[in-house]
């Protein structure tokens, strides 16, 4: 992984943690995350005239990715409603690199080198440790852990899908732009079917935050999609999970969650994973 790709993915990780923290503090998380997704589509719309249409395989992968992203967001909202950010966010993201690595080996025969595997293991261990021992005290909120783990399955699935989609399309920008717009359209239908027209009036006062989180989420994921065309998918997926370090800082300084020795150990494991991935 080149230095440019490495730094770009770290920037995307910070952006990802920021929009996740924003979703956490909204009163209505379902409306907030749906608005963010619609915002991603709005931000991507101006790019459509400048990118090519995906081919048949690209559209198939976009359709699969939209379904997986919807499942991811629904379970993420449930996880956030059941536990604090410092516990649910790490597990929702932490198991995904391991699952992505296994999926990459099986589906596309992409085997990371030894240092990359070490980095993936260290990052996953750090994020999982922070989840299991990162909340308030040592209590594991089992309902939140269950929802977060299911979320991680969706994360791994859409990561592999989008990595393959970007590689099979005419550039990552084309795939990402059409994905964001398609996702926004389908999400709009899902939220109307689940909440009815009343959700629109709930969301309207928050349109500015929707555009901000949409822009952050779109930028973060576009970088990730592009990076997966430049480096192994599993390595990019693991490096994205450095967002947990940013999430920990947000949870401590903005949300008033506690700092514990477990979080410090977990952070050191994550940093070790970052170093191994960069050297790999």
End-to-end Cα distance, whole Å, is: 7 Å
- What is the β-strand count? 0
| Domains, number | 1
Topology pattern, helix = H, strand = E: HHHHHHHHHHHHH
Write a concise synopsis of the structure shown:
The protein has 280 residues and is mainly alpha-helical. The chain has helices at 3-25, 29-44, 56-82, 85-94, 96-108, 114-133, 142-168, 172-195, 198-203, 207-227, 233-240, 243-253, 261-279.
Explained architecture:
- With 280 residues, this protein is mostly helical.
- It has one domain (3-279).
- Helix content is 80%, strand content 0%.
- It has helices at 3-25, 29-44, 56-82, 85-94, 96-108, 114-133, 142-168, 172-195, 198-203, 207-227, 233-240, 243-253, 261-279.
- α2 runs antiparallel to α8 (172-195), α5 runs antiparallel to α6 (114-133) and α7 crosses α8.
- The radius of gyration is 18 Å and the shape is globular.
Defining key terms:
80% helix; 280 residues; mainly alpha; globular
Provide the fold topology.
Elements (H helix, E strand, L loop, with lengths): L2 H23 L3 H16 L11 H27 L2 H10 L1 H13 L5 H20 L8 H27 L3 H24 L2 H6 L3 H21 L5 H8 L2 H11 L7 H19 L1
